[in-house]
Amino acid sequence: MSPETWITYVGTVLLLMSTPGPSQLLMLSNSAANGLGRGMYTAAGDLTANLLQMLAAGLGLAAVIAASAHALTVIKWLGVAYLLYLGVRMILKAKPATQDLTAPLASRKALWLQGFVTSAANPKAVVFFAALFPQFIDPALAFWPQFILLSLTYLVMDGLFLTAYGGSASWLAQRLKGKARLWLDRIGGGFMIGAAVMLSLKSIRVNT
Q1: What are phi and psi of 26, to 5 degrees?
Q2: Is there a domain that residue 5 lies in?
Q3: Phi, psi of 40 (to 5 degrees)
Q4: 89: in domain
Q5: Which of 28, 144, 185, 191 has the smallest number of Cβ neighbours within 10 A?
Q6: What is the DSSP string of 35-76?
Q7: Can you tell me the distance from the alpha carbon of 116 to that of 134, in angstroms, rounded to the nearest whole number?
Q8: Alpha-carbon gap, residue 208 to 196, rounded angstroms
Q9: Total domains in the fold of the chain
């Protein structure tokens, strides 16, 4: 793969990541409520799902999965329901911040699972990787080295974006007290519901 091709790929991914999606909204919410350290488990879940989606694309499974519109629809709406549940629960449990430092935080496993489900439930993800990568792979060169480079580049860029979102949300949450923190938690729940809405609006066209 030539440097020019890789730079073009990086620019393409930057454009695709320039607007927040369901995973970014979830990262904002979880980092605000639990801090950046725990919020990174949400990012890890998202990146794990991305990695599996990339592998599916690389192994040629994307075409098989994309051929089943019903399966993609079921996966998507399960993810939407899960995010709606989390968002509503967060809003209902919101309360003003106090000096009680023993307030329970979400478990690392739960945060990882939320990130994984949100990304895995995106019906465009596998098809996106299967359609994007071939545009930047030189058929005259070995496939897997190029595929690995594209995958690692995407994961690093996505990780940096998620860290920036999470760091900003965590920084703001640490400086809000009382009713301001109450509203931050409610907004965080709203972000989760917004992520569910964004996910519900995502669709793909499956050729039959």
Answers
A1: -65, -40
A2: no
A3: -65, -20
A4: yes
A5: 144
A6: HHHHHHHHHHHHHHHHHHHHHHHHTTHHHHHHT-HHHHHHHH
A7: 25
A8: 28
A9: 1
What pLDDT does 157 receive? 92
- Residues with Cβ within 8 Å of 160's Cβ and at least 6 positions away in sequence, in order, are none
Structural domain boundaries enclosing 57: 22-201
Q: Is the pLDDT of residue 178 over 50?
A: yes
Structural domain contains residue 4: no
CA angle 104, 188, 87 (to 5 degrees): 85
Q: Is the pLDDT of residue 96 over 70?
A: no
Q: How confident is the model at residue 135 (pLDDT cuts 50, 70, 90)?
A: confident
* Helix ranges (DSSP H) in the chain: 3-16, 22-58, 61-66, 69-93, 108-120, 125-132, 143-174, 178-201
The pLDDT of 3-19, averaged and rounded, is: 83
Query: What pTM does this model have?
Result: 0.70
- Asked whether the predicted pLDDT for residue 132 surpasses 80, the reply is no
178 bridge partner residues: 97
- Measured between alpha carbons, how far is 71 from 58 in angstroms, rounded to an integer? 20
Euclidean distance between CA atoms 66 and 50, whole angstroms:
16
**Residues listed for the chain:** 208
- Rounded CA-CA distance 28/22 in Å is 10
Q: Which residues pair with 97 in a beta bridge?
A: 178
More confident site: 16 or 142? 142
Is residue 191, in this structure, part of any structural domain at all?
Answer: yes
DSSP 8-state assignment for residue 136: G
